[in-house]
Every structure is written in C-alpha cells, then in structure tokens.
Design brief:
alpha+beta
Length: 290
C-alpha cells in the first residue's frame, strides 16, 4: 500500500498525522459549504492543513504501516524514510509534489504551500455524500424557484439528522449517569431498611463506587512497554495538575497508552491539545477511541 493511502486512512481517524522529517497533516471538522462561485454545495468534511514544523516521530504512521502491511517496525520505518527522501527530491527538482487523495505541496522561495484535495472525504459520517450542483435562484416577485427549494430542503434534513446523532451520543452519556445514580440510591435504601430493624445499631457506612464514564477523545502523553513506566508518567502528569491522567488501553503493539485527560467532544479535545502542545509537549496527540 502506498504511503499516501496510510496517511489518508489515519486522517479519517485522527486530527494530526506526522510524517517524520517531512511535516504534519492537521485536520479539523468543517460544516457544509458552498463553493466560491456558488455552483456547488459540499457536505461536511475535515479541512486539511500542512505544518512543516512538526517533524518529530510519534510512531503513529510507522505503526500503521507496520500493522497494515504485516511488516516489522524497522522495515516500515525504512519504507517511510525512502518516501520522504523521494518527496524532498521531487520538491527541489520540480518545486511541486502531489500526494494522492491528500493534496499538493509546492516549494516557492523556501516556503511550503499546501493545497488540499477538494474531492476527498475525510469525515466518516459524510461517506456517500457527494457535492451537489447549486442551481441559480430564479425570482419572480417574491417566489423562489422550486429546484432551489428542493436542495434547501435536502440540506435542512441533513443538518437535522446530524443534530439527532449528536444528541443521541449525549443522551447515552446522561442515561449512563442516571442509571448509576439510580442503582446507588437503591443500594442505599436496602442498607437503611436493613439497619432499621435494630434501633440501637449504627447505620452502616455506604460506600458505592460509581464508575465514571470518560469521553472518547484522549490526549496521549506517551506509550510504554512497562507498566511501571506508565505509572510513573501518570504520577508525573498528576503532579503537574492533570488529575484525570490515566491509562486508556493498549495499542496493537502491546504498548500502554497514557492520556493527559479525556473529553466528550472533539472541540474540547482540540483546545486542550493546543494548550498542552504549547505549554507541555509538542508531541502530544489526539486519540479517538470508544
């Protein structure tokens, strides 16, 4: 599989994909929009930008190449390094380099200019939604053309469905919390009822741990082979004020992933990631995981 395909697939799952010694592709969600000439309506998507300053290897891309192609980490690293060398040569020789499904990078006066692909869908929820023609509005007095109303109705239905899906996620979180509290109240009532048979006895201390449900957006501080190292990282993060620091599971390579914190929405996670990269670690990255 080509390196561009691996980058494309990762951008559908993550908000930042670093190509070591080359740069990083950064994604952010954008809503549906109309083309500059007003001829087309594009569905919601991810907007891709290129940051030449982020070049330090975070292991994400090499791990994906290794697991997808069933090759060792070292072989995957060598394959990616050859791609980077070849890309730099093309930029210096031609001043232009096309990355399939991602966009194009040009080099002018030592400045990198990135133009993202307009036809690629990076947002999974927009799969199957192609751009549609935006018909010219025809007005006769106060009447608007029926074709325009038809497309406007389609967009209204689409946005309504998007709102329903978003609401359903938060409803599930609220239902989880309400169920936990209801179970806690039930256990408390049982203990109190049992204690009332003996008036002289002391009411038992009720200790009911309620499992906290974390969001699906985790800012990763590091990945560790040894658990003791992951615990040291958690302790270090908590000493810096990140009291919700914790392990968020094991990746495909058996490494324990430690997060600064977890968030319910990608917007909250992006804001926190920007602050952490500025004040703590430029290599922190966002993991989306249920």
């Amino acid at each position: 599989m080509k390196i561009s395909n691996h980058i494309f697939n990762l951008l559908q799952e993550h908000d930042c994909v670093i190509v070591p010694n080359f740069g990083a592709f950064v994604a952010r969600n954008i809503s549906a929009k109309i083309s500059s000439d007003g001829s087309k309506i594009f569905p919601p998507n991810k907007e891709i930008t290129f940051n030449k300053s982020l070049v330090k290897n975070d292991g994400l891309l090499i791990n994906r190449i290794s697991s997808s192609e069933n090759i060792s980490y070292e072989v995957a690293d060598d394959k990616l390094n050859k791609w980077v060398i070849k890309s730099h040569k093309k930029l210096k020789k031609q001043g232009y380099f096309e990355i399939k499904n991602i966009g194009s990078i040009s080099l002018k006066k030592d400045k990198y200019i990135f133009i993202p692909s307009q036809n690629s869908i990076f947002l999974k929820s927009s799969y199957g939604l192609n751009s549609i023609d935006s018909p010219q509005i025809e007005r006769t007095g106060n009447r608007i053309g029926n074709s325009y109303l038809k497309y406007a109705a389609i967009l209204i239905v689409f946005f309504a469905l998007t709102g329903i899906f978003t609401k359903s996620y938060f409803d599930s979180v609220n239902e989880f919390n309400q169920a936990s509290y209801a179970q806690a109240n039930l256990e408390i009532e049982k203990k109190i009822q049992k204690a009332t048979f003996n008036i002289n006895s002391t009411l038992p201390v009720v200790k009911l741990p309620i499992k906290k449900q974390y969001g699906n957006f985790h800012i990763i501080a590091g990945s560790f082979m040894l658990e003791e190292n992951s615990l040291k990282m958690i302790a270090e993060l908590k000493s810096k004020g990140f009291m919700e620091a914790r392990k968020v599971g094991v990746n495909k390579f058996g490494l324990l992933q430690v997060a600064y914190n977890s968030y319910d929405t990608v917007e909250e996670a992006r804001l926190a990631l920007a602050e952490i990269r500025y004040a703590q670690d430029i290599n922190a990255w966002l993991l989306i995981k249920n």
